[in-house]
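Sorry to interrupt, but I need a hand with the structure work. Please put the record directly below this note.
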Amino acid sequence: MQTLDLGAFTDLGVYTPDEPAAAAEFYRRWGFVVLRDLIPADLLERIETECVAAQASVLDGTADARYGSTKYLVDDRLPAGDDEGKVEKFVNYVEHVEELAPGVEEALALPALQALVADLLGEGFWRTRNGVVYQDARPGRESGYSRIGWHADWQAVPHLDIWPGTAFTIHVDGTSPANGFLRVVPGSHLWATPSPFENVNGAVVPEGAPPARGYTDTPPPFPMPLGFEKVRGEIPVYAERGDVILHDAFLWHSAARATDDATVRRHVRGGWQGGDPGLRDTETGFVKNAAR
């Protein structure tokens, strides 16, 4: 009788800073990688403290409106008849959080992380004007964000040649079924995924968007779901506190809703681009195509 070595799956895609070649190889093959033991514990604690303080300042109105967010949220956060004032009692997003939390920039400048991204995107990689976001996903009724449907990040800016790119997520909290987790379709970054001309939010795709993007001309074997459906070949990607996940801008992914209403899932996220550096200071906009 054959036995399955579960140990081979326990840390799928997890690499430490002293394994850069293996991390890059895994990323190129599957479209994502988890970096563990990259951020020192004291730096992570500072990031958490600074981001929580930034969130509080947005909530109490002492922060500039620049740091608040409306573009990422759903429009109907509460069931009909509920007190609309509840929406104002919680802040899911802090935009441009790197300006309020210096520890974030310190983490993103870590040599091992910079070297890996340079390997993946080229030495001239850059960030857009959209900046970095602190995201606090909660399943409670006061929360405007608890999950997100299937999408690829490039679909939010399909009309500009800023791709390829990679997203980074610094996990303040570990993830699990209890508080939600990342769902990915490994290898889907190699498909030519269509622009989101059809989406559940009625979002308009700007002129100039190509029919599809990806690392090959191979079409997906099945359409990308418009919602949260199960996808053939998908896997969960769990993170420990302090892990950094990189995932390709062409990778199909979504985020599962927490099953425990008492939990939180906090992280810092943003991205680097490897496309035309002349677009670095361009206002990229945001096509909110993914279900929420």
Observations:
- The longest helix spans residues 41-60.
- The chain has a mean pLDDT of 90.
- The helical segments are 7-10, 20-30, 41-60, 102-108, 111-121.
- The two ends are 45 Å apart (CA to CA).
